[in-house]
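Before relying on records like the one below, remember that each one covers exactly one chain. Contacts with other chains, cofactors or solvent are not represented anywhere in the record.
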Amino acid sequence: MTHSLSVLSDALESIVNVLAGIIGLYSLYVASKPKDKDHPYGHGKAEFISAAFEGSLIITAGLIILYESIITFFEPTTLHDLDNGIWVLLSTAILNMAAGLGAKAIGKKNKSLALSSSGQHLLIDSYTTFAVTIGIGLVIYTGYKSIDAIIAIVMGVWIIYNGYKIIRKSLAGIMDEADLALLEEVITEINKDRNKHWIDLHNLRVIKYGALMHIDCHLTVPWYFNVNEAHAVVDEFTRIIKNKFGDSVEFFVHTDGCMPFSCPICTIENCAERKSIFEKKLNWNVENVLSDNKHQLA
């Protein structure tokens, strides 16, 4: 209707977001499937693959926009009916913003990368649409048609950058990159209700696939505990984490017996097997729980 490249670019981005949303919807369906013999860790990584594909679509749209914008900058086209175009753009921007905020809120609540990515796409789409609206207003006010192409070029670069960020995040999930923020949450919860029989914690790993969170670690308990007593300590450990993060948490906890060098950091009182006096309670943090060795005071 307007022959505006910036409007056409914004429309192309919206179409890509719709396609990405459909892919994201299917990935949520796959990720929600329960574990089976072929997928013992569940299907949660489908969300990462979906996000990578969505990011690729967005980058492709950005490259097309950038290419067409550069050509149009040197060979301007005649613009038409810009007044009506502004109202169409404003309506689109408001709808996209509402949908984007809703999707991001639900994605954050459920820790869903697919929903969060789709919500982010819609928000970015609304921001660029508002920018295009302002640009069209400037074209009407000033009469400089080259503003249209300049806005489209800026949009193309912006879209490519956001597509890259989405791909980067999805690849981090596929490669099991450590989620330090989630790890910090887990450690905070453990420290909050720390049991005296959890003498030491090390080699802690936290991975999240879709709704499933997987935790494995080495938990040091008194060496003289029998199997049932050690199991009860592990049950208390897992219960505290599940109270915070829900039942969709899978644990692999390896128990270690304490060693004489554990005594200075052990808070058990009146221990008949103590080899040295208690000196200091070791606060667990992201740096020391990742270690593959039992902790001891220097």
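The mean pLDDT is 83.
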